[in-house]
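Ligand-bound model needed. protoporphyrin IX containing FE.
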Amino acid sequence: MSIAMNVALFLHLAAVAVWVGGMIFAQFCLRPSLADVSPQLRLPLIEAVFGRFLTWVGVAVIALLLSGGFMMARFGGSHAPWPLTLMAVLGVLMMLNFGHLRFAVFPRIRRAVQAQKWPDGARAVDTMRRLVAINLVLAVVTIGAAVYSRGF
Ligand code: HEM
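Prediction:
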């Protein structure tokens, strides 16, 4: 494998680690730990945590697109083995899901926290929780497709 491909794969896997690891932390560690905390404390904390995490995910998405696109071109673009094409399609779905979360749902949480409208904020956080759950399932299938592509 060329140095450029190794660098691209390194960036790709580092971005996957940041994105998927962060989602696991948010969904299975942070969220249950905040279940009994009052909305006045919980929602500003969630807004602060995700304000930072979503920036990291934005960087990871750019790294995944650049490294994945580069490697995909080396694997023949549209003629690449189908599990790689499946990874790209699922990856783009994950990115669209993230875009909706970042640019539609998260601003609702931010506005609700600023206006101290806790029920609105709690509803938006619940929507975010469902979007993260969807992206976690997509991520597992995507990683499966990536590993399966090795046999081709
Ligand atoms: C635009 C989106 C994406 C494209 C075009 C893309 C493309 C690629 C390509 C061409 C490879 C190299 C495969 C090889 O060396 O055999 C790769 C590796 C990999 N990708 Fe993606 N990818 C994308 C998104 C994702 C996402 C979102 C994930 C995980 C959530 C992911 C997980 C992986 C993993 C784990 C590998 C390592 C596979 C291995 O070396 O066995 N990719 N990707």
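The chain has a mean pLDDT of 96.
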